[in-house]
Design brief:
single chain; alpha+beta; Ribosomal Protein S5, domain 2; 4-stranded mixed sheet
């Protein structure tokens, strides 16, 4: 089974995370940021991955360190769980509608981190979650997972719907990209490796 555990402890956050790419039977997320928990649960459920996450962050300041550091740790764990990436489909794309909103994510598990992000949110916060942190999470995840990631809100009015559509699209695109294609020998690259 492709899985990895990761811990990170700084003066700002303490994170304990486990990811299971082939076993979605358990999803347990506790970050102290309710809306972020909801988004990560949507990501894991639609990504068909198991995710166990406990975060203690400096929420008396704000949710920035909790969200960004979670992206770092999750990205590293996904990268480790993928190992040498032998046999993976590598690319994934998903459009997700959510009521008035439509979001798009396309990614390449290339080993070359990159983020292109387009999304504007009318509300600056949802609960104790600052909406500008959506981009911070996507960037931290992409750069630590070694993923080329393009994410875009095509349209929508409701901030909650736009962000949730993005997280679901990220999960669904990742689920597609990490699938094993039994017809592949080695990795899907003319270079012979993905790093």
């Amino acid at each position: 089974m492709r899985q990895a555990s990761s811990k990170r402890e700084t003066a700002e956050t303490k994170i304990d995370l486990a990811v299971r790419l082939d076993d979605a039977s358990e999803i347990s997320i506790k970050t102290g940021v309710g809306f972020f928990d909801h988004m990560l649960h949507a990501f894991a459920r639609h990504g068909r991955i198991g995710l166990t996450l406990n975060v203690e962050g400096d929420l008396h300041i704000d949710s920035h360190h909790t969200v960004e550091d979670t992206g770092i740790v999750l990205g590293k764990a996904v990268r480790e769980a993928l190992g040498d990436k032998r046999g993976i489909v590598r690319f994934g794309t998903s459009y997700v509608p959510m009521d008035d909103a439509l979001a798009f994510v396309s990614l390449d598990i290339s080993g070359r981190p990159f983020l292109h992000f387009e999304g504007e949110f009318h509300l600056t916060s949802l609960g104790n979650f600052d909406t500008e942190l959506v981009r911070e999470f996507f960037q931290a995840f992409a750069f630590n997972a070694g993923i080329t990631l393009h994410a875009r809100v095509l349209y929508g009015e409701n901030t909650h719907h736009k962000i949730e559509a993005l997280f679901k699209a990220l999960g669904r695109a990742l689920a597609e990209a990490v699938k094993i294609d039994p017809s592949l020998e080695g990795v899907l690259s003319t270079k012979g490796l993905l790093e």
